[in-house]
Amino acid sequence: MAKKLVKKQTGGSYGRAEAERKRDSIYNANKERSKARLDSMMKEVDAFKKKDATVKTPVVTKKKGGQVKSKK
Questions:
Q1: What is the pTM of this model?
Q2: Can you give the residue range of the structural domain that contains 29?
Q3: 1 part of a folded domain
Q4: Is residue 40 situated within a structural domain?
């Protein structure tokens, strides 16, 4: 038996405009959310940099067996 086709409802120009507006609002909300997340991450990074102004780079020394150990 052939499947019965369900006709999609088309809301005309009003429905399309409404859908576009909704999509834009979702897009903008996500953009704001990601911007806020990025800002908070940058604040954390700045706080870390202020706390530890001299970033210690580990001095890599080789041990027997080829294991890498970082000196403090």
A1: 0.40
A2: 14-51
A3: no
A4: yes
CB 26 within 8 A of CB 18: no
Tokens encoding 21: 């507006």
Question: How many contiguous H segments (helices) and E segments (strands) does the chain have?
Answer: 1, 2
How do residues 3-20 score in pLDDT, each as one tens digit? 666 666 665 566 778 888
Q: Is residue 19 part of a domain?
A: yes
C-alpha separations of 32 from 21, 26, 28, 38, 62 in Å:
16, 10, 6, 10, 47
Confidence label for 44 from pLDDT (cuts 50, 70 and 90): confident
Instruction: Quote the tokens at residue 41.
Output: 């991450």
Place of tokens 């859908």: 19
